[in-house]
Amino acid sequence: MAATASGVFRRTAIERSDQRVSWERTDQAFFSSGACHVLAWTCRDFYPDQDIDLAAMYLGEFERPLHVYARWGPWAFDASGWNPEAELLQVNSDFECLPVREVETISAGLREFCEKHVHRQPHQYWADPTERARAYVSRYAPPWL
Fold first, then answer.
1. Rounded to two decimals, what is the model's pTM?
2. Beta-carbon count within 10 A of 16 CB
3. Which residue, 77, 132, 134, 140, has most beta carbons within 10 Å?
4. Which residues in the chain come in under a pLDDT of 70?
């Protein structure tokens, strides 16, 4: 699957206000916008013997990251599957019409990251998305296999 901008799946007002409505979106939509950070942490945990980092993408002058994803070398994993990181950055920049200001390697744990960036922790969703994320990660063979 080609890299797709996370903004393509931006949540509507009702999806932002009703966790169940947000949960009922397709997996790609759910993990593109609203739970990308859960998917990224799950991907890293899914391959504990690989050197997978987590990254936060900042566009323009926004204080909070637009998107979070896992990365291994030149590869990035998000709701679009594995794609070259450069492509993932470009499609998001093009879609938002904003330059990538920074890609930050995340060293914090999931809880700390969520608290700092006002993201939901898994237990704060309509249902814990961790198993859904594991199933999603398992659908995509990493480029090193």
1. 0.92
2. 13
3. 77
4. 114, 118, 122
